[in-house]
């Protein structure tokens, strides 16, 4: 094609050697970036998981680790749930009466100092121990759980009867 309408235009050569290679497309672009990012995140999560455990020393001497803190604001006001894993509870010498002092200790010595750092003061703190990690709100007949509720007055945890 020649003429005034095509003057100055370059004629494109037919596409050659542009087909996908025999082994598939080269690994570059967003797909590769996403894969490496996801892989790095998974590796970091697995490596750091044991470092997330927060061991706590309690009066009974049993092993206890901080699991999480959940806050809620039902009718009577703000309250915090501090959840701990204590693998020995429910066993001989680790019945509720044996570890009740640990629950109060965890409220006064672990939860209260952290509540002071978080901001709003709760009307209640619930301390729970479970023999294994368990998702909040779930029940498992093989996992022992102990709970106690405390009101907060004058910077102290006061045990509340359910």
UniProtKB/TrEMBL annotation:
Protein name per Swiss-Prot or TrEMBL: Acetolactate synthase
Taxonomic source organism: Pseudoprimorskyibacter insulae
């Amino acid at each position: 094609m020649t003429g005034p309408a095509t003057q100055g235009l370059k004629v494109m050569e037919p596409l050659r050697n542009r087909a996908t290679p025999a082994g598939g497309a080269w690994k570059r672009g967003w797909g590769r970036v996403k894969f490496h990012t996801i892989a790095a995140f998974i590796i970091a999560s697995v490596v750091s998981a044991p470092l997330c455990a927060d061991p706590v020393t309690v009066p009974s001497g049993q092993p206890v680790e901080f699991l999480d803190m959940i806050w809620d604001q039902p009718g009577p006001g703000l309250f915090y749930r501090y959840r701990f894993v204590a693998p020995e509870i429910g066993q001989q010498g680790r019945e509720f009466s044996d570890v009740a002092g640990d629950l109060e200790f965890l409220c006064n010595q672990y939860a209260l100092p952290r509540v002071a750092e978080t901001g709003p003061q709760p009307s209640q703190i619930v301390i729970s121990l479970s023999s294994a990690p368990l998702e909040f709100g779930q029940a498992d007949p093989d996992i022992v759980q102990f709970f106690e509720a405390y009101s907060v007055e004058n910077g102290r945890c006061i045990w509340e009867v359910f």
